[in-house]
Amino acid sequence: MLDRLRAIIAQRCADWGGELLAFRGAPDYVHARVALPPNLDLSRFVNNVKTTSSRLIRRDFAGRLRRLYRRPVFWSRSYCIVSCGSVPLAAVHQYLAQQRAPRRAGARGARRAHRA
Fold first, then answer.
1. How far apart are alpha carbons 4 and 24 in whole angstroms?
2. Of the N and C termini of the chain, which has fewer Cβ atoms inside 10 Å?
3. Does residue 114 belong to any structural domain of this protein?
4. What gap in Å lies between CA 96 and CA 90, rounded to an integer?
5. For the domain that residue 36 is a member of, what is the CATH number?
6. What distances in angstroms separate CA 52 from CA 29, 47, 90, 102, one per listed residue?
7. Number of domains making up the chain
8. pLDDT per position as a tens digit, 62-81
9. pLDDT tops 50 at residue 49
10. Is residue 113 part of a domain?
């Protein structure tokens, strides 16, 4: 299903004059790194990607999804867009690769919050 979703998002990017640069997903989330024209209306693009992918994934995997979702909702209403502007994409990739997963509260070795 993720492979199909990747193909749908890549096609949507191409149709809007962009390119899918990276894609990662799990059963409960998807991260897509895309390059898009600077004058693109991002909310319309995201709405188009979600609408198209939801329709096609529900069509192609109807039996499998019917067991998982009681309501006909594939995506949440939320999304996050981060722009890197004039920063070279290689620097963004390096920055993201160096990020660590956040420590859980109470985890061994976690720092305590400083109280004023």
1. 12
2. C
3. no
4. 10
5. 3.30.70.1290
6. 17, 8, 30, 33
7. 1
8. 878 777 777 666 788 888 88
9. yes
10. no
- Identify whether the C-beta of residue 23 lies closer than 8 Å to the C-beta of residue 32: yes
pLDDT for res 58: 85
Question: Is 102 a domain residue?
Answer: no
Please provide the size of the chain in residues. 116
Helix extents (H) in 1-116: 2-15, 42-60, 62-68, 89-97
Inter-residue long-range contacts of 54-62, CB under 8 Å, 24+ positions, other chains counted: 56/4, 56/8, 57/1, 57/4, 57/5, 57/8, 60/4, 61/1, 61/4
On the 0-12 / 13-18 / 19+ scale of CB atoms within 10 A, 21 is middle
Residue 103 lies in a domain: no
The answer to whether the CB of 10 falls within 8 A of the CB of 30 is no
CA distance 24 to 7: 12
